[in-house]
Amino acid sequence: MNKGEGLRLYRTLTLIRRAEEAIRLHYGEDDMKTPVHLSIGQEAIPVGVCHVLPEGSPMFGTYRNHALYLALTEDTDRFFAELHGKEAGMGRGKAGSMHLCEPSRGLLATSAVVGTTIPLAVGAALAQAYRHLRQPVAVFFGDGAAEEGVFWESLNFACQRSLNLLFVCEDNGLAIHAPAADRRGFSSITQAVGGFRCCTATADGSDLSAIIEATRALYRDMEADKQPGLLHVSYFRFLEHVGIGEDFFTGYRQAPSDQERRERDPLIRFSSHLLSLGYHPAELRAIDVEVDDQICRSIGRARSADYPTAEALYEDLWV
Amino acid sequence: MTETMTYREALAFAAAKEMDADPTVFVFGLDVPDHKRIFGSTKGLVEKFGPSRCFGTPLSEDAMTGVAIGAALSGLRPVHVHIRADFLLLGMNQIANVMSSLRYMSGGALRVPLVIRAVIGRGWGQGAQHSKSMHGLFGHFPGIKVGLPTSPQDAYSMLRAAIRDDNPVILLEHRWLYDIEGSVDEQYLPPLPGPVVVRQGTDVTVACTSWMTIEAMKAADVLARHGVRLEVIDIRTVAPLDETPVVSSVAKTGRCIIADYDWLYAGFSAELAARLAHHCFGVLKKPIERIGFAPVPCPTTRPLENLFYPSAVQIIRAVERLLDLDSIDLSQESFYSYEERFKGPF
Fold first, then answer.
1. Which segments in chain A show pLDDT lower than 50?
2. What is the dihedral of CA B191, B197, B199, B204, to 10 degrees?
3. Looking at the structure, do residues B126 and B160 belong to the same domain, yes or no?
4. Looking at CA atoms only, how far is residue B82 from chain A in angstroms?
5. Nearest chain B CA: its distance from A248 CA (Å)
6. How far off is chain A from B255, nearest CA to CA, in Å?
7. Shared-domain flag, residues B120 and B175
8. Which helix (H) or strand (E) holds A248?
9. Is B196 exposed, middle or buried (0-12, 13-18, 19+ CB in 10 A)?
C-alpha cells in the first residue's frame, strides 16, 4: 500500500462513517423517511473488497448497503437525496435506503429480502462467461443468508459452472436479533461450503488491511483454480438491526467494553495502522474536515431539492 | 413467408429466429436440451447454437430465476423455460420482488429484458400441482407483462415480441395447444399484441384466455347451428391489459361472457369484469357471466377433473341464460377431451 492508497482508503472509510453519523444526527428530524440499516462496524468489508477487485466489476449487495454504495461511488449527493426521497436521488426517491444501486459504478442491485441478490450475481457472472470475459463479480450478503435455500442453489450453480464470482459473507452473528447458535446447524460457514468446488478464505472485518490481503489471496486462488470463492468476514454490528440507536440495553447481547469498541472499530483500527506507518495526524484530520464538508453540502442540497412530481409515480415502470 | 406448422414448432422456430438475429439471446431451464426438448418447443436449438446458448440447469428454480435476472441486467436476453407453470412458484421471490420492481426502484436506470416461458398442464391426472396457469397472479404485480398465446401464429409472434421486449415477460403455454396446426407468417412481428377478435358475431361477446378460446370457438360452431352468433375474443396479453377491443364488442352485443383459464376468485376474469362493468354499464343488457375453474384444487380422477374444468358446454349454457333461450340438446355434439388432444402421461 503506497501513501496515496492509504489516504484514499482512509477517506472512503471516513466518508462512510461520517455519512452514517450524519444520518444518526438528522434522522430524528424526520426528513429521511426510509428504514436505515447502518453499517457502522462493517465499513471495511466493501472498502477492502472493492479496493482489490478491478474497477467497474459488477457488484450486488443487501439492504445494509450504504458502505458498499459509498465505497463504489463516493457520491453523497445522490445518496442523501435518495434518503430524503428527492428527485435527485439515485432512484428518484423510489429506492430509499434499502435498494441503492449505481450501475455506472458497477453496483447493479441491492435487496430488502435476505439472500435475494445472490443469484443475480451468479447471473452477472454467467453473463461474463457467456461473453468469454473474466471480469469478476462480487456479492455481499449477511450470515443469515446462508440459511436461505437460494444461497446453496446459487453456490451450487456457480461452482458447477466455474464462474468468476466472489461470495462475501458479512458475518455479524445476528439475524436481526437471533444469535448464530439459534440458527445454524453447522459450526462454520467456510466448512459448510467446503464440500463445493469453491475457494474459501476468512478475515477479521475490523481490519481493513487484513481484508485486502485475504481478498487478494483468495482472488489469486480463484484465478488459479478457475472456481468461485467465498470470503467469510466477521464483524461487530455496533447499532441495532434497523434504525440509528445502540440496543445493548435491551439485553439480548452484551455491550462491548471500551477496549472491545476500539478493537472492533475498523476506522479506529485503520487510522491507528496509518499512524503507526508514519502518516501524520494532520493529514487524516484534513481528510476528516474535507469529508464532513462534502457531507454537509450534500445534506443541504438534499433538503432543498425537489420531491418527484406526481407524474413520476407512473414513470420508470416500463422501458 | 407463410408456412403451416404446429404450436410447438412455432415456438422453436421463433426462438431460433431470435437467437439467429441476436447473439445475446439464450434459452435455458431444466431439461431444455434433453431428448424431449420441452415437448419439442426447444427442438434444434442446442444443435444450431451450441450448449452455451441452450442449456439445462440444476433443480433450483429460485436461483435460476435470479440468474436470469442477473444475466438480463448484464445486457443478455435470457429465455427461461419451465415444463410446468406451477414450478414458477419456487421462483416467486425473484419474480414478484425483483424482476417486477428493479426498473422502478432504480428510477429507470435498470432494465430486465427477460422472458419466462411456462407450460400449463392439463388432463391425464396432472392434479393440483401440474395444472395451474396463474396469469392473473403474475399480472397482479406491476412491471411484468403476461401473455397466453393460443394460435401457432401467436406462439411465434408473441415469443419473438417477448424476446425483443426490454421488459420482463411471462408467456404461459397450454399443453393442449402444442399440437394445434396453423399457418405462421414469419414476417408478422408486432409488439406483444392485445386482444383480437377471432370470430365475429353480434349476439354475445365471449372474452377468452388460452385454451378457453378453443372451447369458445367450439361453442360458437354449435350455437351457429341454432342461429346464435358469438363474437369470440382472445385476450392474448393479460398484463398490461388493453380492454378496449372487448369494450367495443360489448357495445355491439350488450352481453358478455368471460371464459378464463383460471379460478374466478380475485382472478383475471374479475379484473376484466370490473373494467367492463365500468365502461359498458349503460349498454349491458344482462349481468356479465364468468366461467373458470371450480373453486377447488385440481382433482386427479377423470370424473372430477371433467367437472373442474370449464368447457364449451358451460359457455353454451351461459349464452342460453344471457339470451333467455331454451336449453339446447347437446347429446349429439362431441366436445374436446384429452383423449383427442393429449395422450399423456405428461
1. none
2. 160
3. yes
4. 17
5. 33
6. 33
7. yes
8. none
9. middle
Residue B344 banded pLDDT, cuts 50, 70, 90? low
Closest alpha carbon to A98 in A86, A108, A112, A85: A112
Contacts of B162 (CB under 8 A, 6+ apart): B115, B145, B147, B169, B171, B192
Across the interface, whether the CB atoms of A123 and B94 are under 8 A apart is answered no
The upper half-sphere exposure of residue B177, i.e. CA atoms within 13 Å in the direction of its Cβ, equals 29
Total domain count for chain B? 2
**Residue B342 banded pLDDT, cuts 50, 70, 90:** low
Q: Within chain A, where are the H helices?
A: 3-26, 44-52, 66-73, 76-83, 118-130, 149-160, 189-193, 208-225, 258-264, 266-276, 281-304
Grid cell 439480548 is found at A252
pLDDT digits (tens, 9 = 90+) for B185-223: 999 999 999 999 999 999 999 999 999 999 999 999 999
Measured CA to CA, the distance from residue B236 to residue B174 in angstroms comes to: 12
Q: How far apart are CA B68 and CA A181, in angstroms?
A: 34
Collapsing DSSP states into helix, strand and coil, what is residue A318?
coil
Q: Which one of B161, B185, B209 terminates a domain?
A: B185
pLDDT at B345: 60
B98 is written with which cell numbers? 425483483
Domain end position, chosen among B159, B185, B211? B185
Domain of residue B298 covers: 196-341
Could you tell me the CATH number of the domain that includes residue B219? Answer: 3.40.50.920
- Strand-pairing partners, residue B183, are B4
Task: Examine the domain organization and report whether B179 and B305 are in the same domain.
Answer: no
Residue B94 sits in the same domain as residue B227? no
In this structure, is residue B190 part of a structural domain? no
Give the CATH number of domain A3-304. 3.40.50.970
CB nearest A149 (choices: B26, B62, B94): B62
B135 catalytic per annotation: no
Residue B30 resides in a domain: yes
Give residue B338's pLDDT: 61
Q: Are residues B165 and B227 in the same domain?
A: no
By Cβ distance, the residue of A92, A126, A150 closest to B62 is A150
Q: Cα–chain-centroid distance for residue A218?
A: 18
Strand partners, A37: A243
Say whether both B140 and B286 belong to one domain.
Answer: no
Supply the pTM of this predicted model: 0.96
CATH classification of the domain holding B61: 3.40.50.970
Q: Which residue of A has its CA nearest to B91?
A: A150
Q: Cell 440458527, residue?
A: A183
Residue B66 and residue A95: Cβ atoms within 8 Å?
no
Q: What 3-state class would DSSP assign to A86? A: coil
Which residues fall within 8 angstroms of residue B295, CB to CB, at 6 or more apart?
B263, B264, B265
- Whether B156 is in a domain gets the answer yes
Does B130 participate in catalysis according to the annotation? yes
CA–CA dist A6, A65 (Å, integer) = 23
Same domain? B54 vs B105: yes
Q: Using the beta-carbon criterion (under 8 Å), do A101 and B63 form an inter-chain contact?
A: no
Q: What are phi and psi of B224, to 5 degrees?
A: -60, -35
Classify residue B226: in a domain, yes or no.
yes
Residues B175 and B201 in one domain: no
